[in-house]
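Protein of interest.
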Amino acid sequence: MIKNLFTFCFLFLSFQIFSQNIDQIKSVANFSSDAELFSYVEKAKLKGLSLAEVETLATAQGAKLSEIQLLRKLWNAKNDQLGDGFDKTESSVKSSFGNTEFGEEEEEEEEEEGLRFGSYFFKNKNISEAPELFIATPINYRLGPGDELMINLYGASENSYSVQISRNGTVKFDRIAPVYLSGLSIVSAKNRLKNRLSKLYAGLVSNDKLSKVDIDVSLQKARSVVVNITGQVEAPGTYTISGFSSVLNALFAAGGPNKIGSFRNIKLLRNGKVNKKIDLYDYFVTGLYPNVYLRDQDVILVEAYSKQVDLTSGFKINGLFELKENEVIDDVLKFSGGFSSDSFKEKIFINRINSSSRSVVEFSKEKFSESELIDGDILTAKTVSDFIANSVSIEGSVYLPGEFDLSNTKNIKQLIASSQGLLPDALSKAILFRTNDGIENEIISIDLNNEKDLKTFLIDQDRLLIKSSIDLDFKSTIKVEGEVNNPETFDYKNGMTVRDALILSSGFSPFANKSNIILIRNISSENKDDINKEFIINFDENLNPDNNVKLLPDDIISVRKTPYLQTSKSFKIEGEIAVPGIYSIKNKNFTVYDAIKENIEFLKSSSIEGISIFRDSIRIPVYGKKLISQGAKSKFNFELFPGDIINVPIKNKTASVSGEVQQEGILNIDKPISAKLAINNVGGFKEKSFKRGVYVEYQNGLRKVTKNFLFFKYYPRVLPGSKVIVPEKEENKNKTSVGEIVGYTTSLVSIIALIKSL
């Protein structure tokens, strides 16, 4: 009793406190702003807590991954780094394991500055940061605490051991001392285990084939290691990753080097000392993978770059490139893939900082291997002009237009020969365009039938244009419209006749009036009152010479429809009748009553009350009994349309009940009953039943819904062959459940308690 009272009071209090909008509750349940989170960070630092401890507390209180990443950023940031423009509502960096997304402002800034070579690798969302686990154990992988081994013995003795390396670096077997394996490769571990297990299995060191025992050692599950990634990376911090992970996997998890982070001086610190230096350009340029496997408590330090140059244009890869000391122009050309195809490759132009200003320095190809670059250099390779020196060109009606070498093409005759000659439609007159002082400002007329003109001497950049007779031809048309299979406008050709035009139009349609083809001709040029003249042509007789009239440009042929001709119209009758099939609509006012009276012979099993008509996928109810008894003037009679389908169903003495009822079912009825009674006969309504929406669908497709007046419901009658449907009541999506409210209450109280404890 006391427990129930407590629950009631708690829920009542929760409803009173959280009767506000549900979205507000959700926003309070998480960190509400960056300012509050920064305050939380400052208090935690004053209490002497570490970042790992604060992350653990925040995770326990339901903080999201994006909030944990923001917490890391604020923890490592100084007050002066945040600045006045620090967004109090939304983080500009949202980092998750192996996936760092940048805000719009940062993307725009990066586009302006140029993309750093190598940064594309860490921004590729299609790359997985996780190493492939289902591969053979790498030969240089070193075992450590947490690795699980599978040891199989086979031969004279067979046994299997699944062991895990302990924190002390050992594995334990019955009746022998612990075997230390930490730091060994799989091969070394196999040899050591073979030696130790030989005390239990003498066959391991026996040469006798009958008593010999072989051993196989494999890594069943790699351990997890904790590594620290610090320095100039997008998301520095502590990461728990697979023991198969390399330095590159770990860097991808941290989002890679940031805008000032080095790609070429990455240090792996192990036990406080530099164990390895990694240059990622070896991987990006030559494909040499930095296959250095990480161990527990390794530290990856990414320092700031010391030298960076910008390749702006004229190279296969343009962008920012990091350089080491003593690297020269040849090195950066190797990184960028070299010059682009359209670049001038004999020189590189460098915009270089000289104290407080910049100057342009040129380096020739001979000095690329010895010229060192300076931090901030901007390299440019010039693009070669499209200008083609010592050339002449030919355009127009020739077989091979284009540019040709002036050395081998001295005159117009040779130029035409180089272009494989004139096309059949080439005009005999051509135009030679000549360039003087770099400007095409002179025209020379050329007669291609004149031998003297063909020997005209050519100079650099001359351009010969030979037009086609088609270019000068004005295209006239004729039009065919009306009752033809392909009405269209055609190009006029000399000698074209009416018969030709009709053939081009794919012939007459079935409704064409062949005896009254109209030819319309424009006679406005005769300067008379009439603009057009019409000719009537008879095509009833194909051999009639009068129907082969020659056409003139702009003539129009009009093929009209046969007077009064209409397409045949029909409807279909299907279902429970004597002769189903297709029947004709005999007159313009042919109705449903006419169709039933003239064409339908009902069977004893026919449901006259269930007759309906399907028209364009729409079902139209027909009140069969009333229509037949009242005749053609019945208000239920209506006109039939071509394509209508009259359906006469079989008699049905059942009614179905479906939807939100206790049990869907079929009832046998021989007389009308109430829909409420039909529902009660299958167990009644469910809790989610929408009682006001109950409706009945009759056999002819008619639907009747429940009517409501004040507090009373009038359910429709159910006839044989009907369907009773009980719809489901719609849920209120804005309504908050008790469980949600309790959950938000708990989250809010926990976060408030956490902040106060700091």
